[in-house]
Amino acid sequence: MAAHPHLDRVARAESIAKRMDSALRVPFTRITFGLDSIIGLVPGVGDALAVAPSLYIVKLARDCDVPGHLQGRMLVNIGADWLIGLVPLIGDLFDVGFKANLRNAALLRAHVENALSTDAQPRPASDPSLAARTPLPA
To answer: How far apart are the first and last CA of the chain?
Structure first.
């Protein structure tokens, strides 16, 4: 049986998020960083380029029918990452710790898993006593 299409989108979002936020590790530490941090080192242009994969994760969320308020939260994460990333050095350090893409991928996964588990819940059977009281059409 094939996986649900939303789960495929979640996996794609998580893959992008990992590359962007935690693909590399500082040796002998638990500190991870990704392409977002490296690209962000290029003044001005770097942070703007790093927004494209972030917005793609939001597009994947939209394709998974994520509600607007959750998409808004994802956009706030991206905006904070971008805005603070514009500040030299401080923005680069913030970028290593904040990890907006991983946050957004986690929000997407939580929504999709919740939606799929809600869909999988058995529907309550109708009350059999109602059938006895409901007249059949002539």
So the answer is: 44
Distance, CA of 43 to CA of 68 (rounded, Å): 32
Q: What is the pLDDT of residue 1?
A: 45
Compute the chain's Rg from CA coordinates. 22
**E strand segments, 23-134:** 24-25, 32-33
Is 60:9 a contact under the CB 8 Å cutoff?
yes
Nearest to 40 by CA among 105, 84, 101, 79: 84
Angle at CA of residue 30, ends 20 and 28, nearest 5°? 115
pLDDT digits (tens, 9 = 90+) for 61-110: 999 999 999 999 999 999 999 999 888 888 888 989 999 999 999 999 99
Q: What is the dihedral sign for C-alpha 45, 48, 54, 59?
A: negative
